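Team,

Forwarding the record for the chain on the shared tracking sheet. I've put the sequence and predicted structure together so nobody has to dig through attachments.
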Amino acid sequence: MNIREILVRRSLRALIEVLMSQDQVRSFVLSQVERALYKEAQETGMKWSLRQVQQDRLDCASALLHGLDRLMKRGFISKKCLRSVLEGFLGNVFLNEDSQKALDKLGFDPPSFITISPTGKCNLKCIGCYASDAALKGGQLSFEVFDRICREKRELFGSHFTVISGGEPFLWRDGEWDLLKLAARHPQDVFMVYTNGTLLDDKLVARIAEVGNVSPCISVEGFEAETDGRRGQGVFQKILEAMENLRKYGVIFGISATATRDNWELITSEKFVDFYYYDQGALYCWIFQYMPIGRGQTFDLVVPPEARVEMLKRMWRLVRERQVFMVDFWNSGTASLGCIAAGRGTGYFYINWDGDIMPCVFTPYAAANINELYAKGENLIAALNTPLFRRIREWQNDYGYEAPPHKTGNWLCPCSIRDHFDEFARAVRECGGRPINEEASQAIADPIYYEKMVEYGKLMQELTAEMWREQYLEQEQDLPLTLSRERERVAAG
């Protein structure tokens, strides 16, 4: 019996009650879930993916379970919020039968989620923001379009997970509707909201706790000097106040961090983990390495390839030794089975405030526009069928997603834009990808930009080739997957 069958056969509500009960009981149940995950992966997952890839994926899941247990022990998550999120996440995301129905109906594996930026408006003006100067233009999605996207992704793709970005999402308004009213309209879904955190006052957080299916993900750059240096004076203190409010109401939250040449060591340090995970109560962290695509784009802020390799090592050590859920959208390519852009199965695509549909948040080249598709009587499936999306998925499949394990491309360099810009630029030109702003127009036509991006990818391939070969391709496939606690016991002698 696999982990899905175990959870289905037991009452979901009974399981949630156990998770909210005494610490010792909850820890035991979570450890049994963890063991079941590893057992299932050992028996089935090894047939279709490399052993170390499976180990990486399971170590991330294990870290999330340990983080949940840790925060419950400290009283940082309320029973009401835990119930709401678990019923939504376990019941509608993990135990999701709708995705299988969508697969049977569509004939292909649909994306697991969509990232939506309903507004470009923002109350900050951060250096190097990928959204460029959208706040000055004030674009936003209408309620009708925003609501329809959320409904269609569930009905067409069986997707119950939605990522909200911006701009600042909590500034979105359309008549009587705001973000929390829209989330309440879709109670069977879970919404993760990237936010700068400055608007999360007591009143707003109380509403988030009441809605129950929203988890804020607050942007930080390190500590006070780094955060205020990029985001503005006083922002860090407002973030701390926001986190205090979230703990007060027991709302599950996480953090996101933009890694640059200047702060990559800090955000992969022990003191960063101690402060945000253990002191402030974050459950998860998403790391976005600075991409030279937005406001004031510059290669001076890019994490150098040599430093990125060290980041990779430090991040996985933190995941495995400190049991924290930390995912880097470039260095965690093994955990995501490579690039997840362009609506790949288990992946996603992006829709911004103007309705532009892009393969990824960090690829400012539109394949279509949702407002135009809806006006023509089309739906979200039309976005998946655009030439640009199809071309990128073909590259993903050839690079490893649908290849036999021993022919998997180097997923330590997974990104179609950062690590393989020559392929990406060709796809944009040949498939009619439309630049969404002046910066994107300049970048795709600039030979110097092209050369720098391609050179970066080649150097990353050279620096990680031996690691990929030794730790992934040449790893014995019949070696057993190991639980984190078993590794700890071995290390302790």
